[in-house]
Design brief:
The chain is of the alpha+beta class. It has one domain (2-157): 3-Layer(aba) Sandwich (Aminopeptidase), CATH 3.40.630.30. It is 33% helix and 25% strand. It has 6 helices and 7 strands, in the order βααβββαβαβααβ. It has a 7-stranded mixed beta sheet, sandwiched between helices. The protein starts with a strand and ends in an 8-residue tail after the last strand. The relative contact order is 0.15.
C-alpha cells in the first residue's frame, strides 16, 4: 500500500533514508558524505520546505519512502529510498509511478552523478539526463543544495520536460 507519511513517522522516514543511503557511501565524494546521511533536523527542514513524503507499506511496516515537492512550474522527486533488505522488489517503481500520477507538471529528479544505478533506474522510467548547463541552472533554481553537491550531481527530466537536453 502507498500512503502519505505522517509527521509522527519522522524517525522512520530518516531510518529508511539513512539505511538506503548506505549504497552511496563509497560512491559520492567523501566530502559530501555525512553520518547520518539525513538528520532529523534536515528531514524536518525538507518537510517545512514543502517536501511531502509518501511511503510504501507492507504488513504495517514502511519499506520505502519518496518525497514530492511542488516548485510552481515543476514537480521534484526528492529523497527516494528503499530499505536495503527490500531493494529490487519494485517498491521504488511503485512509489515513482504513484507520485508521477499526482502531477501534470514536468517532473525533475536530482541524484549523484556517480550513482549509476540510480540514474539507470530513472532512465528505465522515461527520464533523461539534461545537459550540464541546464543541470546547473535547474539545481540553482529549484534545489537548495551546496555548490559542491551541484558539481557532483545530475538532473533527470521526465517525459513532459520540453526544454533542450
Amino acid at each position: 500500500m502507498i500512503r502519505k507519511c505522517q509527521n509522527s513517522e519522522l524517525d522512520t522516514i530518516c531510518e529508511i533514508v539513512n539505511d538506503g543511503a548506505q549504497a552511496y557511501r563509497d560512491v559520492i565524494p567523501a566530502d559530501c558524505w555525512e553520518q547520518p546521511y539525513m538528520s532529523l533536523e534536515e528531514c524536518t527542514r525538507e518537510i517545512e520546505g514543502g517536501v511531502v513524503f509518501w511511503g510504501f507499506e507492507s504488513a504495517a511496516t514502511l519499506l520505502g519512502v519518496m518525497g514530492i515537492q511542488d516548485k510552481g512550474d515543476v514537480t521534484l522527486i526528492r529523497h527516494a529510498y528503499v530499505r536495503s533488505r527490500e531493494r529490487r522488489r519494485g517498491i521504488g517503481t511503485k512509489l515513482l509511478k504513484y507520485l508521477q500520477s499526482m502531477t501534470d507538471k514536468p517532473v525533475l529528479v536530482g541524484t549523484w552523478a556517480d550513482a549509476e544505478w540510480a540514474i539507470a533506474f530513472y532512465q528505465q522510467h522515461g527520464y533523461r539526463l539534461v545537459s550540464e548547463s541546464e543541470k546547473n541552472r535547474l539545481l540553482g533554481k529549484y534545489w537548495c543544495i551546496p555548490k559542491r553537491q551541484i558539481e557532483t550531481s545530475v538532473v533527470l527530466a521526465g517525459e513532459a520536460w520540453d526544454h533542450p537536453a
